[in-house]
Predict the 3D structure of the following.
Amino acid sequence: MGSENPTGADNQQGSRVPPPLGSTLTPQRLHAELLATDAKGLEAYLQGAYHDGTASRRRRTFRFGQSDRRWLDVLTLCLERLGHRSWIYREGRERRFWVLETSAGFLSRAFEDEVRCTGPTAAVDYVRGYFDAEGGMPRRQSARLYFQFSQKSRRSLEIVASILQGVGIESGVIHNPSRRVDPDYWRFFVSAGSHQRFMSVVGSWHPRKRQQMKTRMKI
């Protein structure tokens, strides 16, 4: 990233300058993979990613926030391929936090009620978007590998676990690690025996997580 503020967004709300299609921030191989994905798969991925998004009723837009702008460039490419406009801006002068805003009206929390009817391929795309937005894995290569999904909605996690099971990826029990701290927080881990299959079948389009998986894959 050559500039601290490539979109020119210095104020709190930011300026609506769209990033370039196929930004150099998107690795070439990932870029090719996105171009090869059909519209149903791209929509499913974005619906999964939207679990970490918010909606503005007043502005009729949807927002995704990240400290790693590269993932927002991936979302931009997905949206542009679907014919939807989006713009990226930095939130605040001192924060390294980026926001993508779009008016793509198909985004909806209700999608999880129908995701299993989209077919196994699109359902996996949905889980990939969900993981890229909400999932966790260790940043240090020396750390013990894990893949975690966490959410306020237990039912949402049950749907994700069911999709994973349908493609041969086993998961642990959905549980609340501390009811005293947050009674509405739920999570589950992908079983250790399914780690390699999770990386090869689900994988990631988040540039950082994708690179971390690449170093963990057994050839």
User: Anything to note?
Assistant: Residues 1-25 have pLDDT under 50 and may be disordered.
